[in-house]
Design goal:
four-stranded antiparallel beta sheet, 12 strands, 2 domains, 8 helices, five-stranded parallel beta sheet, Arc Repressor Mutant, subunit A, DNA-binding, alpha/beta
Length: 235
Amino acid sequence: MHALLVEDDDRMARALGTALARRGHTVRRAARAADALRHVREAEFVLLDLGLPDLDGLELLRRLRTVCDAPLIVVTARCEERDVVQGLRAGADDYVVKPFRMAELMARIDSVRRRSGGRTAAEPARYAGGPVRSGDVEVDPAGRTVTVAGVEVRLTRREFDVLAFLAARPGEVHSREEILDRIWGDAFLAASRSLDVHVAGIRAKTGRSGLVRTVRGFGYQLGSAAGCPDRGSGA
């Protein structure tokens, strides 16, 4: 498996590169955002530090996601809740704060890769079944597209995966643990905010707060048609 390691700290890059090589991965290191953008299409997964000298890491993450759908884990010293939420919303599959245990990071890499099925940007996950409508929102699992009132809305890969999973069985309520297991493949994330952040992203980007319905204390369900459109403060 070919990894792109985006890390400007030489000591950290050596440690991560050695750990990845011992697990059979080939590693290309990029110390600058420009190098990461140049080589990301070759990557089968990405480790991204946010503290880069030539571009803010979150901005780089957004740019990477326009050209690359490979599994991506942020590995950074930024530990504020705001940073974690922004990283996940920008398209990270996981977020690991330095300092970390190397064994845990390797396990998280395995989990993200397992869930993604080892696909690259040219091989996005495909879902069976035709388009599903909820109000004026249409989810097309095969084409991996979402439209609202006929206009396509761009979701991150994880956001789409969550929405497509709910849309596949729109009449069912899915527990948080089930969704995390199916989409992230990692029960460890059950205590994290990853799922909540991605659900919030779906609602915000579609402008339909009822598209994903929260079942308090349990999980989520695709919202009913009547609950989808936002009507503003007068609703």
